[in-house]
Each structure stands twice: as structure tokens, then as C-alpha cells.
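INFO  loader      accepted 1 record
INFO  loader      residues=254
INFO  predictor   begin
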Amino acid sequence: MKKQSTALFLTAVLLMGMWSCASSGKTTKVPKDALPLQAREVLAAGDILIPAIEIISLLDKDISENAVWSIVEEVNSDPNLVLYWIDSMNQRVASLSKDSAIVNGSVVFAKYSLKRTALAMKKAARSGEAKKAAEEVEKDEDLILTEEEKQALSERKNEFSTDERKELKNCFIYLACSTAALVNVPIKGKEIIDQAASIVNNPSSLGASALEVPKLVSQLKSIIDNTSNAVRETPDVVKNLAANIEILKAVLAE
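INFO  predictor   done
INFO  writer      dumping C-alpha cells
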């Protein structure tokens, strides 16, 4: 297991990016009619706590459920993570819109976690150059740790400051929660897509007026597109989460 962790540590690529979608995500401009979502909402939808704690216990066997949620909920005040959903004049469409936003939000949270992890590792690897590390993370959307940073991170594993270790451990928790939440994205996503498509093919089932139907159908098509994108992205994001979990296991193991 140690050899596997080391190999992943030396070869893992951190694929980070900016993200944006109509239902949830980090955007430069949030729609006026957007309603906020909390991190716990997009994660709990995956019934994540038990599988997440199984991963987290690799580093902290005594961590409690309340402690995990407390750390997760800290991100709600981070302006770099904006989660929201779009309401609808129709109850069925509104329900699908929120479900889609939660599915999308799981992926958005995972990408946020990966980017935050990259920043934490670069800062830890470049002790004394935190500002430079932060600037590089912002500029580089396909981020790869340099060989020097990989080596430095490995060599400093027993020298991290209290703050560095705390942030790296928090990132490990975010990655674990994201991994558990994304398990349900393909299944839940398909359900949402099928339901939305069924209504699009039979809009009269909405019981809406002729004036309302075009707008509702347009919203449903956006829901289908956004959910399809989330489902399509999930496998690569899950692989990246796993690679980063192995990296942090290697450098945080005591």
C-alpha cells in the first residue's frame, strides 16, 4: 500500500478548472432569480456521511459526524464557491431544477475541493512562497505539481506548520465527502434527465397555460443539458479525487 501511495504521489496530475453551469456553480454573474444552496445540501444528497468517514478514518479514526459537517459548512462563506438553483413557476419543474442543481453542485464542490487542495499543497511545498503559489493556482487551470514541489512536499511531511497541516487535513475531508457524494451522480442524474425528457415530450402533462409552456420547456432542456454535463464529467473528477486522496494520505500519515 505504501508503494502504491508513493507511486500515485509521484505521478498524480491535478486537473483543475473554472466551472459554470445554469443550475449551480462558480460564475462571474449569478442570475437574479437564483436561490442559494449550502454545501451540506449538495453533499448530503449522496448520503455521504458513512462512506466519507470510512475514507477520513484513514487519517483520523476518532473524527465525529458533527466534526465533519462543521468543517464542510465552513466553505459556505467562501466566495470562491457559489452554489445555487433556479426556481420555476411550475412545481414539477422547480423540483427537477433543484435536484439538478444538487447533482451539479456535487461536481462543483468536488472541483472546488481539488483546486483548494492544489493551493494547499503548493503552499506547503513552497513554505515562505504562499503568495506565489496562490497566484500560480489561479492562473493554471490544468495544474500539475512540479517535480520540485512533489519532492519538497514529501520532504516536508514532518515539518508542516499547524496551519498547513490543518488545511491539508480539511482538504482531505472535502475530497472524501466529494468522492462519496459523486457515487450517486450517474444514477440520480439519469433519473432527472429521464423525467425532464418525458415532460419535454409531453408538455401538456405540466397542466400549464399555453403561454407558460415554452418557458418551462426551455428550463427543462437546460436541466437536461446541465445534468448531462455533470454525469459526463463525474468519472474523470472521481479519478482525480482518488489520486489526491492518495497524495494526502502519503504526506499526512503520522
